Amino acid sequence: MTDTPLSEATMLASLREIQLPAEAAGGLAAELAVAMGGAGLCALGVVALLRLLSRRRVLQTKTLGDALAALSDAPDPERRVALLHLLRAHAPARYAALKADLYRPQGGPDIATLEAEVARLV
After folding, report:
1. What is the spatial distance between Cα 115 and Cα 26, in angstroms, rounded to a whole number?
2. Whole-Å CA distances, 44 to 39, 48, 53, 71
3. Would 61 disulfide with which of 17, 66, 81, 110, CB 3.0-4.6 Å?
């Protein structure tokens, strides 16, 4: 190390080429491997973040009555799916009977019928 300070031009010139020297082991192949590894880590981070943001909220209640009360303010499509999940979990035989109608053009039972089915279980 010398005692003389570096000039600003010398420092800027040394910052422009931040890469492995040509005589370094691996050369271009090592630089490509590092770039691909960095891109892979960034992609994994983005996927993990998207997965975290797109997780569905699971309705966690202690009783079936609490679940029905929590669903009262949900939009109709979400409430219908949640009611079908509750019916499948608590009355699998009744859900199996309704399952065949779910894929028809009318889409199976309406929300009032599903609420009545689940309310009967309470």
Report:
1. 67
2. 9, 6, 14, 35
3. 66
**pTM, to two decimals:** 0.47
Residue 86 neighbours by CB distance under 10 Å: 22
| Number of Cβ atoms within 10 Å of the Cβ of 95 | 17
Tokens found for residue 85: 């999940």
Using CA atoms, how far apart are residues 58 and 60, in angstroms rounded to an integer?
6
- Residue-wise pLDDT tens digits, 101-121: 777 777 777 888 888 888 887
**One-letter identity of residue 120:** R
Q: Any idea which residue has 């009967």 for tokens? A: 120
Type of residue numbered 40: G
Confirm if 114 and 84 have CB atoms less than 8 A apart.
yes
Q: Concatenate the DSSP letters of all residues of 76-109 into one string.
A: HHHHHHHHHHHHHHH-HHHHHHHHGGGGSTT-SS
Report the amino acid identity of residue 45: G
User: Which residue do the tokens 């992609």 mark?
Assistant: 43
